[in-house]
């Protein structure tokens, strides 16, 4: 990974983009209610803003049909008015989140719950939105805080989003933006493990959720500069399995196109991504060579 370009901002000022999983299908089946989770997350978000006056915070809600910005501390309407009874972070974020959840629910297809499968959240969408926001900060000039992304995710991976998520991960790696992941679901998330591993972020699965605030504040509140001096959780094992491009299923072994590196679970004569012909290709090359020789 190339070193980050030098910043005129002091190195402990952060731009933290948080993606918040609001998937109602996950939260309705999970042991901890969403309100308990949110109250701990809000305290953590508040602590980020308290750490430095220059810290910037953006929250993106990840629904199962859409994603949306629910809070941006740089926005002028989120500045605290002295007469307000509640901090702008809480009142505006909760108001926008409520509107987002209602809007996301309206987009649900009626056949979703009949199959009894929890649909995945649109993590690929919220990662892309985070990166777009960070790119805007990069282009605003040389004075910008150090960006990082934190994914607060609970629902399982959606293998159909594999390509989009990997593209987002490589884009983050190119821009030296670490993706931190706090995964609270039952099994580990292979997508988030890979995201944090490739981008140099932290993947952590809290063993207990009643102390979530403590995990968030000790692991994920640390800015990129201070991380060099701390012993933060190391990734124990990363699930590197990929999804096939044809059926979007997670596979252990598969066929890889030698031209564009697309992955398939079964043998094809032609790559559906780049159009390369596999079986025929060898024969074409030899016949072309023999024609050349004759000429
Ligand atoms: Zn397949
Ligand atoms: Zn190909």
The CATH homologous superfamily of the largest domain is termed: von Willebrand factor, type A domain
Would you tell me which CATH topology of the largest domain applies? Rossmann fold
CATH top level of the largest domain?
Alpha Beta
Beta-strand residue fraction: 5-15%
Helix content: 25-40%
Number of strands: 10
CATH architecture of the largest domain: 3-Layer(aba) Sandwich
Question: What spatial order of strands do you see in the largest sheet?
Answer: 3-2-1-4-5-6
User: Which stretches are poorly predicted, pLDDT < 50 over at least 5 residues?
Assistant: 1-7
Could you explain how this protein is built, in words?
- The chain is α/β, with parallel strands linked by helices and 295 residues long.
- It has 2 domains: 221 residues, Rossmann fold (3-Layer(aba) Sandwich); 52 residues, no CATH class.
- Helix content is 36%, strand content 15%.
- The strands form 3 sheets. Strands 3-2-1-4-5-6 form a 6-stranded mixed sheet, sandwiched between helices. Strands 7-8 form a two-stranded antiparallel ribbon. Strands 9-10 form a two-stranded antiparallel ribbon.
- Strand 4, helix 5 and strand 5 form a beta-alpha-beta unit.
- Helix 2 packs parallel to helix 7, helix 4 runs parallel beside helix 5 and helix 5 runs parallel beside helix 6.
- The N and C termini lie far apart (49 Å).
- The N terminus is likely disordered.
- Bound molecules: zinc ion (2 copies).
- The site of one zinc ion has 8 residues, from loops.
């Amino acid at each position: 990974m190339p070193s980050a370009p030098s910043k005129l901002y002091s190195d402990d000022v952060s731009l933290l983009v948080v993606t918040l999983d609001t998937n109602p299908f996950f939260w309705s089946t999970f042991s901890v209610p969403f309100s308990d989770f949110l109250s701990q997350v809000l305290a953590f978000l508040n602590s980020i803003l308290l750490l430095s006056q220059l810290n910037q915070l953006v929250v993106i809600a990840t629904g199962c049909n859409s994603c949306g910005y629910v809070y941006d501390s740089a926005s002028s309407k989120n500045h605290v008015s002295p007469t307000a009874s509640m901090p702008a972070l809480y009142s505006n974020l909760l108001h926008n989140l409520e509107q987002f959840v209602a809007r996301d629910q309206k987009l649900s297809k009626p056949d979703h719950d009949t199959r009894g499968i929890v649909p995945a959240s649109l993590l690929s969408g919220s990662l892309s939105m985070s990166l777009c926001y960070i790119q805007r900060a990069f282009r605003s000039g040389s004075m910008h805080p150090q960006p990082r992304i934190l994914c607060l995710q609970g629902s399982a991976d959606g293998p159909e989003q594999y390509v989009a998520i990997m593209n987002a991960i490589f884009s983050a790696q190119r821009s030296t933006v670490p993706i931190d992941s706090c995964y609270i679901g039952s099994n580990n998330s292979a997508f988030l493990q890979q995201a944090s591993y490739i981008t140099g972020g932290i993947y952590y699965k809290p063993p207990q959720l009643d102390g979530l605030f403590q995990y968030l504040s000790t692991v994920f509140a640390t800015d990129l500069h201070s991380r060099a001096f701390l012993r933060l959780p190391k990734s124990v094992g990363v699930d590197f399995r990929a999804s096939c491009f044809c059926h979007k299923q997670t596979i252990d072994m598969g066929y890889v196109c030698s031209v564009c590196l697309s992955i398939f679970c079964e043998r094809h004569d032609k790559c559906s991504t780049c159009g390369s012909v596999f079986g025929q290709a060898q024969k074409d090359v030899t016949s072309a060579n023999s024609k050349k020789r004759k000429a």
